Amino acid sequence: MGIWCEPFGVLTDGRKIERWTMERGGARVSVITYGAAIQELTVPDQGKRMIDVVTGFDTAGEYEKSRLHFGATIGRCCNRIRGGRFFIGGTGYQLSLNSPPHHIHGGYCGMDRKVWSAETEGEDLVMTCRCADQEEGYPGNLDVNVRFVFQDHSLCIQYTAMSDKDTLCSLTNHTYFNLNGYGDGTAVLHDIRIPAEFYVPMDKEGIPLGYIRQVRDTVYDMRTCGVIGVINHIPDPPSACYLPDGRGMRSHAVLCGDKSKIVLRVRSTMPALQYYTGYLIPEGTRGKQGAVYGPCQGICLETQFVPDAVNHRAFACPILHRGERYRQETQYIFQSMGESNESG
Questions:
Q1: Residue 40 predicted with pLDDT over 80
Q2: Which of 40, 136, 302, 329 is catalytic?
Q3: Catalytic site includes residue 119
Q4: Given a cut of 50, is residue 343 above it in pLDDT?
C-alpha cells in the first residue's frame, strides 16, 4: 500500500510532467499531471495475474502529440456542441471550432491539454486546474478539483468545480479499456451490458437529434449481456449515447474481458453514458512498452451529460451557475468473473 510520484518527461515548452502512482494490494493506478490522465490501471485477472487494462503511452511527449485523449480528464464541457454556439440567460457564446464545424471536448486546449497540480490528501490523489475566463470562448474562471480514490480493486473519480460566472461544466474521463490487457488485440470480443431502456439518436456528425428513443429492437439494445462485435455488427460499430435507468449513483455499464474474465462495473451519478468502441484509433498507433494499437482495441465508457445538451430542452443541462458547486462521481469496480454474480 502506498502512493508516490516520479518524473514522466518534459513537454515541448519545457514544462515537467509527473506520474503519481497509488498501489493497493498489488493493484495499481498511475495518473499523470498532463491532462490528469490515467496512464496505468493494473488489476488481477481470474487467475490472479496482474494485467494493465488501459491504453496509453510511456512518455509525456507521446501524450502531447496524440489527439486520442487516452485516459484524460475531459472538459470544461466534454463531447460536441453544435457550431460551438450556446446561450446562457439570453447571452450568446461562441466557442472554438476544434472539430469543424463543431466544438468538442473543451477545445484546442481543453483540460486534457493542461498541466494539472497534484497533491495527496490521506491515501487519495487530488489534481486541480483552472480554466480561465473566455478560454476557448467559455465564460467564467472555472476551478476544477478531481479526486482519485483507489481501494479494494476499485477506482472512484470525484469531480468538483466552481465558476465565478454562469458557464458550462460536464467533466468525464476518456480511458480506453481493454480488459485482456492493453495491446492485446481487439476489445470487441468483450461482453457488455448497458442497463438503459433509452438512447439518444444522433446525426452522422455525432450531434443529438433532440429526442430519445427506446433501445428495444435496435442495434443499441445492450440490456442483455452479449458480445460487442455481435451486438453492434462490427466492423461498423456505433458510438452511442445512453440514458442509464434510474437516478443518482447507479449502474451505467458492465464489461467483461473475453480472455482475462475481468469484470468492470461502471457506476456514476452522471445522467448519460457515451459508449465508444475506439474504432477511430489509427492502425499502427505505438503505445506502452512497444504495444501497437489499432481500431477497436479499447472501449470507452464515458459518463457525462448528453452531447450538445445545452441546446436541447429534452436533456439535463450542464449549465453551472456562478457560486454553485459542480459535484459528480464515477466508480470503476473490478472483479473476476468468479467473484461476480453475472458474466457481464
A1: yes
A2: 302
A3: no
A4: no
pLDDT (tens digit per residue) in 261-298: 999 999 999 999 999 999 999 999 999 999 999 999 99
Buried b (16+ CB within 10 A) or exposed e, 273-311: bbbbbbbebeeebebbeebebbbbbbbbbbbbbbbbbbb
339 is an active site residue = no
Rg (CA), the chain: 19
Select which of 69, 103, 174, 252 is catalytic: 174
What pLDDT, on the 0 to 100 scale, is given for residue 211?
A: 96
State the Cα–Cα distance between residues 165 and 321, nearest whole angstrom: 7
Instruction: State in Å, rounded, how far the first CA of the chain is from the last one.
Output: 29
Residue entry with cell 459518463: 303
**Residues 72/146, Cβ–Cβ less than 8 Å:** no
pLDDT at 27 over 50: yes
And the C-alpha cell for 43? Answer: 488489476
Give the angle subtended at the CA of 149 by the CAs of 146 and 154, to the nearest 5°.
125
CA–CA gap between residue 265 and residue 335 (Å, rounded): 8
pLDDT number for residue 248: 97
- Residue 195 has φ and ψ, to the nearest 5°, of -80, 75
pTM given for the model: 0.95
Q: Residue 243: count other Cβ atoms within 10 Å of its Cβ.
A: 18
Dig out the grid coordinates for 161 from the structure.
468545480
Residue 320 pLDDT > 70: yes
